[in-house]
Amino acid sequence: MKIVDGNDKDDNNEIDDNPIEQVRLTVSIKDDPTQPALTFRTWVLGLASCVLLAFVNHFFGYRTNPLGISSVAAQIVTLPLGKLMAATLPTKSIHVPLTKWSFSLNPGPFSMKEHALITILAGCGSSGV
């Protein structure tokens, strides 16, 4: 929520007004456009967790007592994997043939945006086929 004085429309007037104290203390309401979101790490970890959770949940769905694994499991597992990938992948830029496009396997530290997108992709796989 943005509280603006009649005369001053400055970003300094923004306040964190989330009713949950833990969220208010840890999550900023401002977006950081410098954080990467759709990276190689996001696609690899997100698609892998989506496919794996879809397979495992469908496989265990045939049991007499079906067992389901939620996207929280993938969220917990992918954080250290993302940080490991950020530490080990090369930063060299890769050019896509016959286009002007290029991308880096490692654009910088593992970000909250990447982790949130991986969790969303994992949720798509865990919810059912």
Task: Tell me what the structure shows.
This protein is mainly α. The chain has 2 domains: 1-30, no CATH class; 36-126, no CATH class. Helices cover 47% and strands 5% of the residues. The protein has helices spanning 21-26, 40-60, 71-88, 112-126, and strands at 93-95, 102-104. A two-stranded antiparallel ribbon has the order 1-2. Helix 3 crosses helix 4. Mean pLDDT is 85; it is low at 1-6.
Q: Work out the radius of gyration.
A: 19 Å
Tally of helical runs: 4
Structural class: mainly alpha
Task: Give the N-terminus to C-terminus distance in angstroms.
Answer: 37 Å
SSE topology sketch:
Layout: H1 21-26, H2 40-60, H3 71-88, E1 93-95, E2 102-104, H4 112-126
Antiparallel strand pairs: 1-2
Helix pairs in contact: 2-3, 2-4, 3-4
Note the main attributes of this structure.
2 domains; two-stranded antiparallel sheet; disordered N terminus; single chain; 129 residues
Question: What is shown here, in short?
Answer:
By secondary structure, the protein is mainly alpha-helical. It contains four helices and two strands.
